[in-house]
Fold this protein.
Amino acid sequence: MTMQKKDQAPKGSIGTNKLFWNNDPTHLQFLEKHYEDTPARQFSQTMLDNLIKIYVKRWQKMYVMKKTRKDTELQRWINQSTNHWHFGLWVAMTYLNKSYITITEIADAMHISRTTISKMFEELHAMGFLIKKDLQDKRQTGYKCTKSYYINFENFMVYYMDYTASTEKTNIFETIRMYAISKQMCTKKHSNNTNLGQEQNNVEIST
């Protein structure tokens, strides 16, 4: 009779690195039991928690800025809704890419209707922030933002970066670096235990 050694990795669940992050419940239970309390795992979790806090605080600040920055016509239009705000990002990229974008392209990218996109294009065009051009395919119209639109966007980005830099006590790049190091530590720890687990798989207890 062959018995599986106590606390041995479930057969086939941890024998290869490609299965390390699979979602098999038995496999996950084994990982939690063997790695949950290790210093490397705790350090990795702490770094991840710190990163999440930084990003959540940034999104909270962004929400407040969208609600309060309404001094100009463009600010009021952009901050009117989530669709307007993200549409504004795609429009800004036309200046950086020096290219026109069509209703179909941005509708597909944003996963909203062509009718909604067309309305937003026309509203920004009427405000004087878009250049409208018939493309080579006469059935399509391209749009590109004006320099004045991009300057407004650039000013917002500078304000946002200065604002977050002055209010964030934690260096996000250093936190990301430390998180990457911690993940490597966990991977190395797993690799060592995988070799041990493979050796254990070859041990049989006969009765």
